[in-house]
């Protein structure tokens, strides 16, 4: 199965700590028999509403394919981590995978937002 | 007895003759298969100024895609990409 993990880290992390935190979860996926297909650090972004009294957050989006038992392990680690404000795992269907691929490669990337 | 000729109905104001354009599902029309929750700007098209979801009768989405849009908006709200409540969104 293909999954997508989005994590919001606290904005107090330094650049190195942010990289280390990303690496921690990417490694966790790899160690448990998953495969990271794409890593996209969005970086600092303002939140639409405050979470734990913070108005900004560091976003990371990870795309990976993994056996289904990995997600439970991943969730435990995400919940334990103090630096994680929020996380979400989304299962991707085949349309989502092609959409992400197209967006990444820039081919027809605008097809979704342009209309009329 | 003379039969009265049929009178035509007369209106005081001109009757609107132009037809309103039929609504369509933009996802079906554009061939979009997946609604991305990460694209907050796109999802804002389906919200009103208070950040509430617009009903199908206004957006014209088909049921299938209205459902997907709703799911995407709820995900985006969880991840603080879109607000739950606000004033003057957009």
Question: Could you explain how this protein is built, in words?
Answer:
Chain B: Part of the 30S ribosomal subunit. Forms a tight heterodimer with protein bS6. Chain B: Belongs to the bacterial ribosomal protein bS18 family. Chain B: This is Small ribosomal subunit protein bS18. Chain B: Binds as a heterodimer with protein bS6 to the central domain of the 16S rRNA, where it helps stabilize the platform of the 30S subunit. Chain B: GO terms for molecular function: small ribosomal subunit rRNA binding; structural constituent of ribosome. The complex is a heterodimer of chains A (116) and B (90). By secondary structure, chain A is an alpha+beta fold. Chain A has a single domain (2-92), classed as 2-Layer Sandwich (Alpha-Beta Plaits), CATH 3.30.70.60. Chain A has 3 helices and 4 strands. Chain A has a 4-stranded antiparallel sheet. In chain A, β2 (35-51) and β3 (54-65) form a beta hairpin. Chain A is globular. Residues 109-116 of chain A have low confidence and may be disordered. With 90 residues, chain B is mostly helical. Chain B has a domain at 26-78: Ribosomal protein S18 (30s Ribosomal Protein S18, Irregular), CATH 4.10.640.10. Chain B is 32% helix and 0% strand. Chain B has helices at 26-30, 40-43, 56-59, 63-78. At the A-B interface, β2, β4 and α3 of A face α1 and α4 of B.
């Amino acid at each position: 199965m293909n999954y997508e993990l989005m994590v919001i880290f606290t904005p107090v992390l330094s650049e190195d700590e942010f990289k280390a935190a990303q690496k921690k979860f990417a490694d966790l996926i790899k160690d448990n028999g998953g495969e990271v297909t794409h890593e996209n650090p969005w970086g600092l972004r303002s939140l639409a509403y405050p979470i734990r009294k913070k108005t900004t957050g560091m976003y990371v989006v990870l795309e990976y394919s993994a056996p289904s038992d990995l997600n439970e392990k991943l969730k435990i680690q995400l919940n334990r981590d103090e630096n994680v404000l929020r996380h979400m795992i989304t299962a991707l269907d085949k349309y989502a995978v092609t959409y992400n691929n197209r967006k990444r490669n820039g081919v027809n990337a605008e097809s979704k937002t342009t209309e009329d | 007895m003379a039969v009265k000729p049929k009178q035509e109905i007369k209106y005081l104001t001109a009757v609107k003759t132009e037809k309103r354009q039929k609504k369509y599902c933009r996802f079906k029309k554009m061939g979009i298969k997946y609604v991305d929750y990460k694209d907050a700007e796109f999802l804002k098209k389906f919200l009103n100024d208070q950040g509430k979801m617009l009903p199908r009768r206004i957006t014209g989405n088909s049921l299938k895609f209205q459902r997907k849009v709703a799911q995407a908006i709820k995900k985006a709200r969880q991840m603080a990409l879109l607000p739950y409540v606000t004033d003057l969104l957009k």
